[in-house]
Amino acid sequence: MYYEWHHIITFEETNLVGNVYYANHIRWQGSCREMFLRDHAPQVLEQLNKDLVMVTTRVSCEYFNELFAFDEVIVRMRAGLVTESRVTMIFDYFRKQELIARGEQQIACMLKKNGTTVPTPVPKSLREALIPYLDS
């Protein structure tokens, strides 16, 4: 199972040649992840406004084909490895049924304490929300 986020590409996201600038794929990972939190773990959003910090520790994207202005990109996210304090998410990018790119992002959960951040367990609400989306 995967979480799906849809996006229509604008001219702002393209380069002079007319295709999507590669860094946007990484930006879309963040948007997909945030919408997942909004839809499935809103308690985490409340914690982020207090003392929780989700630090991106690793990000990657492998590109198979180009996207252009007004293409609809469908980003499908599923959970990979979930450890005590980290979550790895896997992203597949589609235009209709065509796989355009595949990416991965790892986040570490941290707490703000006395002006610094320290590792903390993945919040229970997020861990539970990810269960149906675990990569098998």
Describe this entry's structure for a reader.
By secondary structure, the chain is an alpha+beta fold. It has one domain (3-133): Hotdog Thioesterase (Thiol Ester Dehydrase, Chain A, Roll), CATH 3.10.129. It is 24% helix and 43% strand. It has 3 helices and 6 strands, in the order E-H-H-E-E-E-E-E-H. Strands 1, 2, 3, 4, 5 and 6 form a 6-stranded antiparallel beta sheet that branches. The longest helix is centred in the first third of the chain and has 18 residues, at 23-40. It holds the Pfam family 4HBT_2.
Secondary structure tally, helices: 3
Shape: globular
**Helicity, as a percent range:** 10-25%
What's the CATH topology name?
Answer: Thiol Ester Dehydrase, Chain A
What's the alpha carbon Rg, rounded to whole Å?
Answer: 16 Å
CATH class identity:
Alpha Beta
